[in-house]
From TrEMBL, chains A, B:
GO terms for cellular component: ATP-independent citrate lyase complex; cytoplasm. It is found in: Cytoplasm. Its main location: cytoplasm. GO terms for molecular function: citrate (pro-3S)-lyase activity; citrate CoA-transferase activity. This is Citrate lyase alpha chain. It comes from the Bacteria. Keywords: Cytoplasm, Lyase, Transferase. It comes from Tissierella praeacuta DSM 18095. SUPFAM superfamilies: NagB/RpiA/CoA transferase-like. Its EC number is 2.8.3.10, 4.1.3.6. One of its GO terms (biological process) is acetyl-CoA metabolic process. InterPro entries: Citrate_lyase_asu, NagB/RpiA_transferase-like. It catalyses: citrate = oxaloacetate + acetate; citrate + acetyl-CoA = (3S)-citryl-CoA + acetate.
Length: 513, 513
């Protein structure tokens, strides 16, 4: 065991996983070597890539026991692809696969069966939700899962740490030679940002579509130089689960309070000026922040440089109103965003490496000024947990949380002081996903706490007379209402490894009792 | 010496170059291994990439004696970048560099001095024109130059055969963090297709611009994840030399005759139907073909799938009129094309690998039906020379010639039967660039010859009563008017190696006497 940079004990070696490198500091890893490369090919001209079904595609790729398969999660809880493909693979008798999707959702519960029957023996993903997360936390797998951020996954693939043998990528719009985009078709999802990384680096790429269009399918987000086979199926996803309509603004008064405090913090930060850049999520409080921010931008005549994300209808509106010059989009959260990316030339589709990989020549997060983030828990060292709930069970996702926190000039955690009768601020988060050193501000409905590393922000906020507290004060305030939360007890088995974006290990997750 | 697949004697080894692999057949090379990768980096957030001048950029990249530098040729004869950068490097005392631009033009004559003074000791390029081509053919260099097609260069870079240490890429529009495109700014050139390959694979990428725009510069053809430094200079090129205005249609009656024959051949070929794809150049005869083809498409109510190129105003017009569903564009030939690529979403910018690299999963040429090509000479085996003129001097470019000929279902050489008082058909071309096996039809002002390998086309053309001759008959027809041309005499020194697109050697070029 080695104590890492956030004080967690990290084993030096795990059977079946290998040596672990403990996390040190946000930017302490300087990578050596070169980017990975997919296999060179020699396709003969005028040869179709259409293949009649998934089974034939799996055969054509030469998928074998022990290989790594990947998927994207742009269809979110509407995804049919993962289950469809793994079912076929299971029937074909292929075993012992490493499953490396960009993320997994609640719709992927049937993977539990495929873990039990030995088809899937390893999982690497940004997120894992119930019921699969629960099964994993209860110890169903022999090897721990690896949790990576979106930028961390792109880095792992690009550096060769995560070698994908076959990527099975759902394509909302696709031609027979492998040009595809996500902004047309009945299963549209907008940006294919996560899938674009797999398409570049996987040795074999299979596109699966329910909307084969005339050649060429343009503009192409994934293109024919990357794709080996194209399969047409009836349906790749449930549109209702893929993109929501416009997300309603939450009128929850607690969210409004948090949002008001957040916008005050943005205004006072010194970063709220022409050209500023901004990322937020799709939670109620986040949406409320953007809404209030828009009013402030109009009032103060401020035009932002870019919005980043995770793009919502709200950010599209701000872009179309001229309030953000451009949008960098690795994932669309709603239908308006999904359609906008196909028509607004400065609503620009980026892959997950462009978004957040710390080891290319400059990811988008490196120019980010302000980001709004969530938290399951935050501790008094500002470490944040976004993966395992207060019960210690894997249920959420790392996502872009550690990436944007590291890149942004000011990372803001938006959270109610108390959630589910538990304080949001704890002595020590169950699992560290984002290190406190990269977390600048906690904004709650009861007040604001600033990381003591950021005396500059403390001073600015004090001048602006914001409701400033230390994080310990906020913790005490919460505990007065809730009492001290009970400590969760874990077993000894390691069920998850949480990588920091640079490939080091920031925490491990143990089996729940 | 080994006799290769087109009967040329190829040395097995050349000092300073290494072992040569003789050309066999158009698709006989099946590559092994994986794609090359550029260096992994770790840029800190919020750190500018702006650097004050080219000298500082060269220093920052760590360029050293013996390294490889690259450039793109989208500025054609208006390019200032190559001379500007090599002058600075020469002043800094760096020697013995390999120069690997996508092509070189007549504006690069000052490189002769830098060859003499030892700054440049090797050159690899698609084309080399006078006066540099003449100097090389006269033996100025110690090592032979390597001539590659556009697809061949992309393959060489992508496979690691051509490793670029530092790419210096002119950017008509660029922000301070390295997002760039070619369709805005005073030096606009449209597609940055050749440069995009260098940006992906070079270890260090320097963008040089005369039009720094607000961040983010979107859409980005080259992007911040690929770029290390950005330098602003007064001018990167002479707009007059970069893109011509709309190219006038040639009224040369010889070209009209050739074009009329070519369109008859297209009509009779069996490939002229809905969804067909088409590439052509910007010569008078090519433009005349497209013009007549447009009339035929309207008359017969035929809509093409895509136009490929080398895009001109003409093809933009056909696209905007709905006659081609999409355009794949690796290089814009005129201002209309350069502006169109920024506004027509299905006028799609592709890099040279997408265009023509035989070793990715499917280049655009693989779906090409019909291509119109030129020739300096064609021999009775249908081998074509597009690099060294009838005097044996390197003066032109391989370009996409061998790539499109190999990919297209029907490759058509457009040429006058007699040029400069010499017959276009010869017993044996001075230098083979494109193997006869991939050349299907020769269309001249006097008649049409079809490669005997294509009995299907011969039959179709015969049925359509086209003016069919054997290529020997056309040769005799020409020689009756011109006499038999004299054979050129060469020295023993090898001054050039002509690679086929797959990396094998299709011919060598010797010193002129």
């Amino acid at each position: 065991m080695v104590k890492n940079g956030v004080g967690r004990d990290i084993p030096e070696y795990i059977e079946g996983i290998g040596h672990l490198k403990p996390y040190e500091k946000p930017f302490s890893v300087v990578p050596e070597g070169i980017k990975a490369g997919s296999k060179l090919k020699r396709p003969l001209p005028h040869k179709s890539k259409l293949i009649k079904n998934i089974e034939e595609a799996v055969k054509a790729t030469g998928l074998k026991d022990g290989m790594t398969i990947s998927f994207h999660h742009h269809f979110r809880n509407g995804d049919y692809i993962v289950n469809m493909v793994v079912d076929v693979i299971a029937k074909m008798g292929i075993k012992n696969l490493r499953l490396a999707p960009s993320s997994l959702g609640t719709c992927h519960g049937s993977l539990i069966e495929h873990i039990k029957n030995g088809v899937i023996t390893k999982i690497e993903s940004s997120g894992i939700r119930e019921p699969l997360g629960t099964a994993i936390s209860e110890g169903i797998m022999d090897y721990p899962v690896i949790i990576r951020s979106h930028g961390g996954r792109a880095r792992a693939i690009e550096s060769g740490e995560l070698k994908i043998d076959v990527a099975f990528l759902g394509a909302p719009s696709c031609d027979e030679y492998g040009n595809a985009n996500g902004f047309n078709g009945k299963s549209l999802c907008g940006s294919l940002g996560y899938a674009m990384v797999d398409a570049k680096y996987a040795d074999q790429v299979v596109l699966i579509t329910d909307n084969l269009v005339e050649y060429p399918c343009l503009p192409a987000s994934i293109n024919q130089t990357q794709v080996d086979y194209v399969v047409v199926v009836d349906s790749i996803g449930n549109p209702k689960g893929i993109v929501s309509g416009v997300i309603r603004h939450d009128k929850n008064p607690r969210d409004i309070l948090i949002a008001e405090n957040a916008v005050k913090a943005i205004e006072a930060s010194g970063y709220f000026k022409n050209g500023f850049s901004y990322q937020t999520g799709a939670s109620g409080a986040s949406l409320a922040v953007t809404s209030l921010l828009r009013d402030k931008m109009i009032e103060k005549n401020i035009v932002g440089g870019f919005g980043l994300g995770g793009i919502t209808a709200q950010l599209v509106q701000l872009h179309e109103e001229g309030l953000f010059r451009g949008l960098f989009d690795t994932q669309c959260f709603d239908l308006v965003a999904a359609e906008s990316i196909g028509k607004n030339p400065k609503h620009f589709e980026i892959d997950a490496s462009f978004y957040a990989n710390p080891h290319n020549s400059g990811p988008a997060v490196n120019n980010l000024d302000i980001v709004m983030l969530g938290a399951l828990e935050i501790d008094t060292d500002f470490n944040v947990n976004v993966i395992a709930g207060s019960d210690g069970v894997i249920s959420q996702a790392s996502g872009g949380h550690p990436d944007t926190a590291a890149g942004a000039k000011m990372s803001v955690i938006l959270a109610p002081l108390i959630r589910g009768r538990l304080p949001i601020v704890v002595d020590r988060v169950t699992t560290v996903v984002t290190p406190g050193e990269t977390v600048d501000v906690l904004v709650t409905d009861y007040g604001i706490a600033v990381n003591p590393l950021r005396q500059d922000l403390i001073e600015n906020f004090r001048k602006a007379k914001l409701p400033l507290y230390t994080i310990d004060e906020l913790q005490k305030m919460a505990e007065k209402l809730t009492g001290k939360p009970e400590t969760i007890e874990f077993g000894e088995k390691i069920v998850g490894i949480v990588q920091y974006r640079d490939g080091t290990v920031i925490d491990i997750i143990k089996q729940v009792k």
